[in-house]
Amino acid sequence: MLKTKEEIEIMRRAGRVVSQTLDMVGERLEAGMTTGRLDELIEEYIRDHDAVPGFKNYRGFPASACISIDDEVVHGIPGKRVIREGDIVSVDVGSIVDGFYGDSARTFAVGEVSDEKVQLMENTRRCLDAAIDKARKGNKLGQISAAIQQTAEAAGFGVVRALVGHGIGRNMHEDPPVPNVGSPDAGPILEYGMVLAIEPMVNLGSYKVYTKPDGWTFVTADGSPSAHYEHTVAVTEDGPDILSLS
């Protein structure tokens, strides 16, 4: 569904709350904290900024943020797990403002992490930057997918295929799906007013993943670390407009 200029501005407010929440996470996240405590801080921050946590109770998800550590790719359920020095922690947050969603994710290093993990995080950020640059009116959606795949695989990393980005607006998940791999000639032509949640998920090893018994948490099949970055991006007449910025 295409968004009006006014709707995009509401989504920018929702995206700003999400981005500022992730800024707070970067300041407060530390070794020894539980994922449950971090989730409490996230929910408190979102509500204190006149927004509603977008993930809480969404399709039954029990928390305000998805918090995924090391080999957990996405959708980690916060709880008693203790965050430790050397972990990388992917935090995915959504908010609702005036009926519209914002969605963004970042991966954080806890203290000193391995060089491999640093390279993984840096490459995944580059994947997101390359993908956003393709979110232009008249391009094919597949150009976004191809940019992610090419950037990750050129560095020897595995791009998760089982999960995708998505359109976003009054609903968290709208059409079109935004795969992280594919041909640049695939998919619909991007139009003014499309708003996309672009979210590369990249593994240090194989692209293969599976779901834990909790029914939510995706983990890498080979136990390798994974990184996840995401922005909400509007397609405009002047190029891509990142809505999830502080």
Polypeptide structure, described:
This protein has helices at 5-28, 35-48, 115-133, 141-154; strands spanning 52-53, 65-69, 72-74, 88-97, 100-109, 158-159, 165-167, 174-178, 195-198, 201-203, 209-211, 218-220, 226-228, 231-236, 239-242. By secondary structure, it is α+β, with helices and mostly antiparallel strands. The protein has one domain (5-242): Creatinase/methionine aminopeptidase superfamily (Creatine Amidinohydrolase), CATH 3.90.230. The strands form four sheets. It has a five-stranded antiparallel β-sheet. The protein is globular. The model has no long low-confidence stretch (mean pLDDT 98).
Percent range of helical residues: 25-40%
**Biggest sheet character:** 5 strands, antiparallel
CATH fold-level topology: Creatine Amidinohydrolase
Structural class: alpha+beta
* Total count of domains: 1
Let me know the CATH homologous superfamily: Creatinase/methionine aminopeptidase superfamily
**What portion of residues belong to β-strands?**
25-35%
Query: Which residues form runs of ≥5 with pLDDT under 50?
Result: none
CATH architecture identity: Alpha-Beta Complex
Strand order of the largest sheet: 8-7-9-14-15
Task: Write down the CATH class.
Answer: Alpha Beta
| Global Rg | 17 Å
* Dominant shape: globular
Number of helical regions: 4
Termini separation comes to: 25 Å
What is the number of strand segments? Answer: 15
Q: Residue-averaged pLDDT, rounded?
A: 98
- Series of H and E elements: HHEEEEEHHEEEEEEEEEE
